[in-house]
Input
Amino acid sequence: MSEHKLSTSTPMSRAVRAGVVGVGAMGENHARVYSELPGVTLAGISDHDADVAERVAEEYGTDSVPLETLLERCDVVTVAVPTPAHHEVVSRCLEADVHVLVEKPIAQTVEQGRELARTAHERGLVLQVGHIERFNPAVRTMADLIDDLEVISLEAERLGPPIDRTAPGNVVFDLMVHDVDIVGSLLGASPDSVAAMGTPDGRYATATMEYDDVVATLTASRVTQKKVRKLSVTARECFVEVDFLEQSVLIHRDSYPEYVNDEGQNRYRHESVVERPRIDNGEPLRHELESFVESVRSGTEPEVTPEDGIEALETVLAIDSLVDADRSSQDHERAQDPSQDREVEI
Output
């Protein structure tokens, strides 16, 4: 191990040198936050698009350099390249003894994820998976509440309009993966069974998962003309609404019904009580990178481990295979009946 590199067994006290590999929309935000964090120096960025890399480097006062050079000057990096490149790029970073935060999903296949986890553990490095919603203040508040609830069901909606990009997205991997991870972390379990279906174009999908006695229903969409990021939890004690965008939590409880006397007239009243827990709002990405850097500094396990990322990936792959089977079934039906060959409207 190079002298300046850090093992998780050796806590650090000096400034952490950070880099970003892949500075598309998400990667650029990582560069921005690293440049703002106290005790962190943005040591450089790397991207296959030289023009983009130069622009981002100039914006945040750092250098655009090849990956090999970046790894020589960094203690930690964010890997925000397309998913098919995760395994190769993260492997190179770990083999250079650099701690890694890799954007979700951890890899393209479960075996690739397991291989990355093994490499990180063997080399004593932090490998954190970028499931950013874990660091949303509203989700953290929900995590504090859920242990005291007898949960019956959860329902997550991650909806929005089409995005402006050339490559078509798959909402199961792009969007639903967030809620798969959140539900799994809140319940502390993997699903016992999964059912799913979606549209042939991959822009809308819904999944139902069973966790012992709890049912979770997830919906992801790129065809909904309103941006929605919500989680609802039905428990025997209350109903909880979590809004990721507003970073708010509402707890609905029923009051006992009663008759009240109003100027000599008896009236029936049954009101709902709504609680609003205090939430320390903040940017989830900043919380995520602070947590990552602190794990490196202290030599402790990251808040979102490689195993967490692998578990989410396994579930997402299962959902996607079911959605793909549903797509194939729809294609077969259209082939049998040409009149059904029309664009799906949601």
